[in-house]
Amino acid sequence: MRARSALYLSLTLIASCNSSDLLPAYDLSGSTMGTTFNITLVDPPAEADLELLQTKIQDRLEHVENIASTYRADSEVSRFNAETSTDWERVLPEFCRMVVAANEVSSMTHGAFDITVGPLVNLWGFGPEDHADAVPADEDIEAAQKNVGYEMLETDCDHSVMRKASAAIYVDLSGWAKGYAVDQLATLLDERGIANYLVEIGGELRVRGHNAEQRKFAVAVEKPLKNNTMDYSVVRLSDASVATSGDYRNFFELDGKSYSHTIDPRTGRPVNHDLTGVTVISTNTAYADAVATALLVLGPDEGHALAERLRIAAYFVVRTADGLEEKTTSQFDQLRRM
Question: What is the CATH number of domain 67-164?
Answer without folding.
Answer: 1.10.3980.10
